[in-house]
Write a structure and sequence with these properties.
Blueprint lengths: L4 E2 L3 E9 L3 E8 L4 E8 L1 H4 L2 H15 L9 E7 L2 E6 L4 E3 H8 L4 H20 L2 E2 L8 E4 L4 E3 L6 E2 L20 H6 L4 H17 L9 H10 L5 H4 L5 H10 L11 H14 L2 H4 L14 H8 L6 H11 L58 H26 L1 E3 L8 H10 L3 E7 L9 E5 L5 E3 L3 E7 L5 E2 L8 H10 L3 E8 L9 E5 L5 E2 L4 E7 L3 E3 L8 H10 L3 E4 L13 E5 L5 E3 L3 E6 L5 E3 L8 H10 L3 E6 L6 E5 L5 E3 L3 E6 L1
Helix pairs in contact: 3-13, 4-6, 4-10, 6-9, 9-10, 12-13
Length: about 675
């Protein structure tokens, strides 16, 4: 591609990176005379409509984001078999370069990188987009100190349908969230999980989960909580452990809702830490390469980026290895490309001379047909080499040769897993267990775990899923409540709320119905509500005014219990009779229910005021104030009381009526 002009506009000057889907070139926009990055899809993929659609979606998604910490997208187009994006060119290095050069970072430096990354993702999340592939390779650190997030090629709308059955899992194994692994779900919280893993890596210099195969790493994401950074870096502030744990909670709902919320939490953590905690040097940190001092000093003053990040950026931009996602400043002219990565030898063509068929002066026949005489000392050397080889082989066999690594068979069918293990020379033992996540008949786990050593011809125990553990709700109709509760607990369920109602056919205290109904399937520990019979209803008789003994006898004949209140009250009923009852007459009660009776102290007798000679209003006010009711009798149109009954000075029950005559 170097030297070509795409779409009559973009002149390719140098290759700077190679990715899984595309190659990135440094190019010049000949119309605007601007240096930019040109991302060209591999021609082997450009014929695949799905990949082309995904590639074009990158342009549309990233172009919607106008943020200082997001690599800008200028243009998208095609030129023959080439499908390309024109993007902002960032001279600098990736976070991966910094970690490779520096190992672990100081907490201040880690937060200096994390915060702009979260700011960029926050803008994407608020725009309805998810990155889906956050990792150090996609975090660019420019030589001006700015941190930018690149490669929104895997982004898609938050509300789009994402499923492992309709689309393969997209992303990088070390940074995939559990929900991405299980069903392909991608939400803002999946980006936060990757940020948490990346923060762990910056603080400790290593990944939290490791294994001999991607399957082992995926298994750990699904089944193991993220280790605390302080376990690898003793003395690290607990607030940083909490920040990593918050971002990498295995349950998505336990993470913040988006990057904006996590950014607020990260800033709070920074404010809580002392300068000593922020600048603590982890033991995994290395000095790495040393870049130009003036570059480091310049970078350390830009955007608040810390000195060790600045130094690493200066060193990386001066000629360190470039990762597949970095857009570094080339060290040479237009033909210069990125420094070779670890697998660059496989892609580089070189002229090799074949070895000679017979080395000069060897043991073969010479010009004169004579064989060279073997010197005795070389015999001794040869024997020594053979002896060392035999001893080394013996040591290897004792330590490694008699062992194999347990193959990764997680989520395979029982038959497939058994076949894989048998082909590795291992015996197989099968156990079964319930699983809410793994399909019935598929492998939940192995003992030893995948990647662990096991003796050849040893035994590996497979744990195969029996599917979700569910229990049936038992039929408890007509069962006494205490027995019903015991049966629910025996079945692995929990007795729930109890509602009681009258039922003439079911004995009092026995179960009428359950919710959910008998035979329904529920998970162990689920609550089951019970409806219990109160028996046939009993109508409460009216015993107010009856003698205490008569009232008690009548209520007990009705199948009710009697309780006499300790308090006695004045009432219109004679002393010793029943003044009131609860429940009242006519109420429905269950047989054996209790009726409370209050005994009368008799009427409350008080003295009647003398109101003769008073006006109607004065008399009424005085009598009512004393606790009586007033009845008025008028002769002609008079307004003066000339008589009352009972007379003034007599006693009458409180609340009784006093009659007054007016004339």
């Amino acid at each position: 591609m170097v030297g070509q002009v795409l779409d009559g506009r973009y002149r390719v000057e140098a290759r700077v990176a190679i990715g899984g889907m595309a190659t990135v070139y440094r190019a010049v926009d000949t119309r605007l005379d601007r240096v930019l990055a040109l991302k060209v899809m591999h021609t082997s993929l450009s014929a695949d409509e799905t990949f082309v659609t995904r590639f074009i979606r990158e342009a549309k998604s990233a172009a919607r984001l106008a943020h200082a910490n997001v690599v800008g997208v200028f243009d998208q187009g095609t030129d023959g078999t080439y499908v390309y994006l024109a993007m902002e060119y960032v001279e600098g290095c990736t976070l991966r370069d910094v970690l490779r050069d520096r190992g672990a970072l100081r907490p201040r430096a880690a937060l200096d990188v994390l915060e702009p990354v979260l700011a960029a993702l926050g803008a994407a999340h608020r725009a309805g987009l998810v990155h889906r592939d956050v990792k150090p390779e996609n975090v660019l650190i420019g030589d001006d100190g700015r941190v930018k997030v690149a490669d929104f090629g895997l982004v898609r709308a938050v509300d789009s349908q994402t499923s492992a059955t309709t689309d393969s899992i997209l992303g990088t194994v070390s940074y995939l969230a559990p929900e991405q692994i299980e069903d392909g779900t991608a939400t803002p919280r999946t980006d936060l999980y990757a940020c948490g893993v990346m923060l762990y890596e910056m603080l400790t210099g290593g990944k939290p989960h490791s294994g001999g195969s991607p399957a082992q790493v995926l298994y750990q994401h699904l089944n193991k909580d993220m280790p605390a950074p302080s376990a690898a870096v003793p003395g690290m502030a607990a607030a940083l452990d909490g920040l990593v744990a918050l971002a990498t909670a295995r349950t998505p709902e336990q993470r913040p809702e988006d990057a904006v919320a996590l950014l607020a939490r990260a800033r709070t953590v920074r404010a809580e830490l002392t300068d000593e905690q922020l600048d603590a040097v982890p033991p995994q940190a290395t000095q790495g390469g040393t870049g130009p001092a003036e570059d480091a000093a310049r970078l350390s003053g830009v955007s608040g980026i810390s000195g060790d990040i600045a130094a690493a950026a200066a060193y990386a931009t001066a000629g360190s290895e470039a990762d597949t996602s970095v857009i570094p400043r080339p060290a040479g002219g237009p033909a210069a490309g990125p420094a070779p990565d670890s697998d660059s030898d496989l892609n580089r063509t070189a002229l090799l001379s074949p070895p000679p068929a017979d080395p000069p002066g060897g043991s073969g026949a010479g010009a004169g047909g004579r064989r060279r005489r073997v010197q005795p000392r070389w015999v001794l050397v040869t024997l020594a080499v053979l002896l060392v080889a035999l001893v080394g082989t013996g040591i290897w066999y004792v330590n490694s040769g008699q062992f194999v690594r347990t193959p990764a068979v997680l989520d395979e069918t029982r038959a497939a897993a058994t076949r894989t293990l048998s082909e590795a020379g291992l015996d197989v033992k099968v156990e079964e267990d319930f699983s809410e996540r793994v399909e019935r008949g598929h492998v939940i786990g192995t003992d030893p775990e995948p990647g662990e050593r096991v003796r050849k011809t040893g035994t590996v125990t497979l744990t195969v899923s029996r599917g979700p553990h569910v229990v049936k709700v038992p039929d408890l109709e007509d069962t006494p409540l205490s027995d019903a509760r015991r049966k629910l607990e025996d079945a692995g369920l929990k007795p729930g709320t109890v509602e009681r109602r009258f039922d003439e056919e079911t004995a009092r205290g026995s179960v009428l119905a359950t919710d959910p109904e008998p035979g329904s399937k529920r998970r162990p520990g689920a609550a089951v509500a019970l409806t219990v019979s109160k028996g046939a209803p009993v109508e409460v008789p009216d015993v107010v005014g009856d003698k205490r003994s008569d009232a008690t006898e009548e209520l007990e004949k009705a199948g009710l219990k009697v309780r006499i209140a300790t308090e006695r009250v004045h009432s219109e009923h004679e002393k010793g009779s029943i003044a009131r009852q609860s429940p009242t007459d006519g109420a429905r009660a269950a047989e054996g229910d209790t009726v409370t009776l209050t005994v009368s102290k008799g009427p409350d007798m008080i003295e009647v005021p003398d109101v003769e000679g008073s006006s109607e209003d004065e008399a009424t006010e005085k009598l009512e104030g004393a606790g009586f009711e007033v009845t008025v009798r008028r002769i002609f149109f008079g307004d003066t009381v000339f008589n009352q009954s009972p007379d003034g000075g007599e006693k009458a029950p409180r609340g009784s009526s006093i009659t007054i005559w007016l004339r």
